[in-house]
């Protein structure tokens, strides 16, 4: 099967479905780890609605979406603040397509967009329980670094020089 990657409007149905799947998975993982339960459905809806994704609209950002056999399969958003490092966010693949070599594709597209905007460095944060994400970042040349933000769920920080 063939992978493709292309930018997607942050407010499209495809982007909304990917955001919902991403947030549901990371929220459920956190609650299962800390409270032994899944996310409360009302809280889930409230939190999904609270983050529009507008920061991923050009020129301040981009949402590359990976497709597998033509179907939306994952994403990797990038924020492109002027005068600051680019920030990788929303790196996600649907469970059914994991392990098929697609995770790096939207990340590389995000890196290319950051380079094109003049960024020389990409940063990101993640949680300790997202071990697959941490392994992916290490494979793609990201090095763990000191904290660059104080996000409430940030436990590991990474950076990569874009060169």
UniProtKB/TrEMBL annotation:
Top-rank taxon of the source lineage equals: Bacteria
Keyword Ion transport attributed: no
The signal peptide stretch is: none
Q: Does the keyword Transferase apply?
A: yes
User: What are the TM regions of this chain, as residue ranges?
Assistant: none
Residues of the N-acetyltransferase domain: 16-163
InterPro entries linked = Acyl_CoA_acyltransferase (IPR016181), Bact_Acetyltransf (IPR050832), GNAT_dom (IPR000182)
| UniProt-listed SUPFAM superfamilies | Acyl-CoA N-acyltransferases (Nat)
Supply the alphabetized keyword list.
Acyltransferase, Transferase
Enumerate the PANTHER family for this protein: AMINOALKYLPHOSPHONATE N-ACETYLTRANSFERASE-RELATED (PTHR43877:SF2), AMINOALKYLPHOSPHONATE N-ACETYLTRANSFERASE-RELATED-RELATED (PTHR43877)
User: What is the name listed in the Swiss-Prot or TrEMBL entry for this protein?
Assistant: GNAT family N-acetyltransferase
Organism (species): Streptomyces pimonensis
